[in-house]
Specification:
Elements: H1 8-18, H2 22-44, H3 47-64, H4 74-96, H5 118-134, H6 138-149, H7 154-161, H8 165-185
């Protein structure tokens, strides 16, 4: 799925926004908000921070809209803004916290009959996968999110991150191996 240049609809909405139509920008937000938020959850591992960064990215995009060049898609441009904000958030989080994880400590909750509750196990697995993703460096995590969660092809990722396709392939390969190692360390998967 290669990220296309802006659609006619996006171009029309951008032009209308620049002409003073705030509702046009609201349509852009409506079109891309959920997609961006979901990507940011995977990058940040925290729903609240993903929501904040999503909002901040749209505010910055609105303020900088006159600098948007139609060479890439609007979402590509928006994602770059959001990624930079997310990286800043991750760096500040590292500076203010030691080993404390954003998801909190692991908990074991059982029903009254002693049998584990399936939804809680699923939540814990999701939490552990997020922890494993959080242990990857920003470049690896971003590539994995774009490829595995966004379903983008190598060329689109290369364009979005402004790196060669070969670099995308090598980083993705290393990221997958690193994620597997992290999942093994957390006991989510076996070494086989």
């Amino acid at each position: 799925m290669h990220e296309p240049a802006p659609t006619h609809s996006d171009s029309r909405l951008i032009e209308a926004t620049l002409a003073g139509d705030r509702e046009a920008f609201g349509e852009l937000v409506h079109s891309y908000q959920e997609r961006l938020y979901n990507s940011l959850i995977h990058l940040l591992g925290n729903e609240h921070e993903a929501q904040d960064i999503t909002q901040d990215a749209f505010v910055q995009a609105y303020r900088r809209l006159s600098s948007f060049r139609s060479e890439s898609g609007f979402y590509t441009w928006l994602f770059r803004i959001a990624r930079n904000l997310a990286i800043s958030k991750l760096r500040s989080r590292r500076q203010t916290s030691s080993l404390h994880q954003a998801d909190g400590s692991m908990r074991e909750i059982e029903s009254t009959d002693g049998a584990p509750q399936q939804p809680l196990e699923n939540d814990e697995t999701i939490s552990q996968v997020r922890r494993a993703l959080a242990r990857l460096d920003e470049d690896q995590r971003t590539i994995l999110v774009l490829r595995e969660f966004e379903g983008m092809d190598y060329e689109a990722i290369a364009e979005m991150l402004e790196i060669p396709v070969g670099t995308v392939r090598s980083r993705l390969h290393r990221a997958r191996h690193q994620l597997k190692d992290e999942l093994i360390a957390l006991g989510i998967t076996s070494p086989n």
